[in-house]
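Sequence, please.
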């Protein structure tokens, strides 16, 4: 007699649980997943609705329009009023550049749609880019291959992002021939070298080695080394740029005059484990959180039979390590920012057409990488490089500049020209990184470009 009520209870319980599960499933798809489904590329109804939306525009921080819109026969058509100078930011269609990375904001869909789930006009984007410096960098890189990137060290705001060669976004899809020529171009104009180019850092790696040695107590700026011009270190033949060698010199002087032998020896004192830890602290191999495709850096394991040799190669920036220009910008920004590493950012704010801010962005600290004292010591060495050393071509009258310049070998056998720096030293306003590919060794190509970008961004007088 008691079994029937229990069976009825079990059936009722199963019914209740089934109802609750069904409600949860429907709730998930109709509430949680609804915004994504409404804007999914395979949702044809949604795509037709999106075509009726007037997309937003993209501006630099000082108001230059770089991605516009005009009425087309069907829907809307993108315009590129600033042309090639911003091509790697805007992209050339909705599947490239910021048109892809910021698609939901530009169309006012997904998390940016209004409470009724439909809009007729997208949102505008204001970037952190400085138009004057961006245009100057684009002009200076014309006819070259390489990249320029500049940051505000204390905020992480990206002020310049130029990759060369550039292209005209309005022309890429004008015809099938244009598109094929573009995609098959041997210089890969679509590649954003500032974020995705992987390069041996060459002389610039000396900043990392010096910071690691000073911060760990392995050396001081006055530690004496000896350079004889060519030496065999951990099985690697290391050559100084001075064939006769420097003789005795301090660590400060070694960085100022780019003595490879000093930093190869210093790497042996630091050791592979400590070296790897500082590479990680500086996020040198990490990929930045930006609405654009970027690449991870690469480094040899520094273990096993070849570990010591790989460590020497990494310390002098050859072969064992490959980094992106944005990663080196973050490294130099950490020195300029007193040892605090900041996450770079590109979007300043998202606004409605009336100027009302919907979302504002800022860089955020990722932690302390080195002590403030270490950062100041490395900055002093970099300043010495400008005033008395190899980076003299980055000097600006009336402004204290800290910089390092020099070549790095490329797989093709030619050298890439690097220049990194910041100014003014006492209150840094901008960090600049420049790489020019396939130059004549020791030909100062990147340094003068870096100097002009710094001049466009800082006020020292």
């Amino acid at each position: 007699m008691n079994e029937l009520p229990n069976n009825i209870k079990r059936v009722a319980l199963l019914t209740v649980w089934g109802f609750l599960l069904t409600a949860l499933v429907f709730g998930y798809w109709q509430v949680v997943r609804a915004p994504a489904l409404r804007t999914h590329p395979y949702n044809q109804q949604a795509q037709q609705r999106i075509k009726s939306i007037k997309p937003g525009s993209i501006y630099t921080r000082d108001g230059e329009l770089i991605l516009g819109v005009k009425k087309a026969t069907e829907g809307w058509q993108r315009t590129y009023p600033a042309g090639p100078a911003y091509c790697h930011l805007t992209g050339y269609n909705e599947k490239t550049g910021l048109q892809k990375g910021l698609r939901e904001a530009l169309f006012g869909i997904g998390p940016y749609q209004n409470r009724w789930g439909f809009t007729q006009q997208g949102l505008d984007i204001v970037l952190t880019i400085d138009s004057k410096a961006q245009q100057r960098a684009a002009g200076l890189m014309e006819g070259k291959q390489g990249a320029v990137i500049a940051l505000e060290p204390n905020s992480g705001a990206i002020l310049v992002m130029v990759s060369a060669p550039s292209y005209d976004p309005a022309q890429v899809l004008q015809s099938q021939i244009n598109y094929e020529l573009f995609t098959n171009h041997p210089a890969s104009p679509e590649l954003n070298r500032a974020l995705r180019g992987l390069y041996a850092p060459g002389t610039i790696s000396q900043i990392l080695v010096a910071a690691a040695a000073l911060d760990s107590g392995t050396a001081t700026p006055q530690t004496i080394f000896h350079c004889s011009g060519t030496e065999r270190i951990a099985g690697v033949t290391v050559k100084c740029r001075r064939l006769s060698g420097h003789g005795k010199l301090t660590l400060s002087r070694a960085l100022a005059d780019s003595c490879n032998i000093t930093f190869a020896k210093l790497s042996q004192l630091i050791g592979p484990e400590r070296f790897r830890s500082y590479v990680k602290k500086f996020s040198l191999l990490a990929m930045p959180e930006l609405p654009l495709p970027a690449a991870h850096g690469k480094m040899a394991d520094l273990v096993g039979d070849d570990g010591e040799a790989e460590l020497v190669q990494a310390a002098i920036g050859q072969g064992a390590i490959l980094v992106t220009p944005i990663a080196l910008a973050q490294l130099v920004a950490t020195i300029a920012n007193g040892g605090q590493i900041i996450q770079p950012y590109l979007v300043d704010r998202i606004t409605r057409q009336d100027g009302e801010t919907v979302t504002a962005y800022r860089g955020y600290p990722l932690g302390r990488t080195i002590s403030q004292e270490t950062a100041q010591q490395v900055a002093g060495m970099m300043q010495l490089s400008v005033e008395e050393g190899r980076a003299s071509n980055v000097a600006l009258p009336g402004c204290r500049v800290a910089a390092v310049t020099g070549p790095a070998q490329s797989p093709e056998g030619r050298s890439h020209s690097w220049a990194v720096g910041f100014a003014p030293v006492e209150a840094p306003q901008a960090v600049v990184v420049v790489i020019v590919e396939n130059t004549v060794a020791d030909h100062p190509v990147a340094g003068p470009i870096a100097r002009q970008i710094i001049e466009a961004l800082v006020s020292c007088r």
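The CA atoms of residues 179 and 185 lie 10 Å apart.
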